[in-house]
Write a structure and sequence with these properties.
CATH topology of the largest domain: TIM Barrel
CATH class of the largest domain: Alpha Beta
Order of helices and strands: HEHEHEHEHEHEEHEHEHEHEEHEEEEEEH
Helix content: 25-40%
Strand content: 15-25%
Number of domains: 2
Largest sheet: 9 strands, mixed
Oligomer: single chain
Bound molecules: pyridoxal-5'-phosphate
CATH superfamily of the largest domain: Alanine racemase
Number of strands: 18
CATH architecture of the largest domain: Alpha-Beta Barrel
Radius of gyration: 23 Å
Amino acid sequence: MHLDTDLLHSLAKEHGTPLYVYNGDLVIERYRDLPLFITWPKFRALYAMKANFNAGILKAINEIGGWLDTVSPAEVIYAKRLGFPVDRMLYTANNLSEDEMHEVVGQGVLLNIGSLSRLEKFAKAYPGSNVCLRFNPEVVDGGHEKIMTGGDLTKFGILLQDVDQVKAIVAENNIKVIGLHEHTGSGLTKTDSVYQAMQNLMSIATQENFPDLEFVDFGGGFKVPYEPDEERVDYVSFGSEITRIFTEFCENYGKELYMYFEPGKYIVAEAGYMLVEVNTMKDNKGRQIAGCDSGFPQLIRPMFYESYHHIENLSNMDGEVQTYDICGNICETGDRFAEQRELPEIREGDILSIQNAGAYCYSMGGVYNMRPMPAEVLVLNGESKLVRKQLTNEDLVDQILGECSLD
Ligand SMILES: Cc1ncc(COP(=O)(O)O)c(C=O)c1O
């Protein structure tokens, strides 16, 4: 599953650091294995492209006929330019403006609406249209409180109790609800949360409430291990329980509907690595600090969500294990990829590989402190390709100043 250590090391030497490397073959394997676990014949995985919008990854997913969950007009435009047809996309709206609504409808993508207020505006603007509706599953779970999206303390989805108001708006404007949606959170810690959220959404998905359904979408959130000794979800039994629940639901509904999920992390998290070079070793009264050539704006999850990312010292795999803080090059104390982590001896010049950097790493990145994002290499079918280059410092400044008007 992991890319070979020597390959990663040689890519760091060839392209320089910091560098993102993705195992494209693993991405495709993950996209393809979900329907082997969830054997419902009308199953679709809509890759949540917010997790990683690398053009090479998206192109490969498009080539196997993959679907997308999109969340901004630019994501739609970008995916279209990479060849995705709009009928293989869903647009999950999040506090969208009038302009955004018209833009997305104009692009021809099916809208997934998550508030009564927006549904009303959509229905008045586009009577007779198809729509998908996002409900809040009222199940609270996720890998960190900031990524738990269910429950009535969050901004997401229409409350299940408001289904009658939904029906009134729909009936008045002749809207066809062809899909229902929920998303409980990212990195769901319990398989039961998925089953419960499915049941809660399906409790309102009756013929009486929604006679035109073509699909039910149960969002993303499939968990992958981040820590080396973390157990992997038993996807075979998980998938078979999901299939059983949905089969029973469709029997009651009286029609075989499509079942959608929107995995992001599951598809790409384990396929990514960020490679950094250690340039400064410091001993602070016994606390060993390894300073690297990239920082939290280029991989924010440890700082933002206190996420664990496993790290390997590619240059000294068999060195004597010691304890380190692995720090970045940004002027903030919290700029650490790992704190008090045991690793084989680290020396200046060593290359560290930060693992599970495929999801919400590059895509959540920025240029704080005016440092360009790293380059991205995709390894696919045994070949490594530089898909996106790193801007030079001059390029970055040109880009910023090019957006400014100083007169
Ligand atoms: C609506 C929706 N669908 C899917 C996802 C993907 O979640 P994950 O990457 O945990 O699978 C997200 C992530 O936040 C989301 O908000």
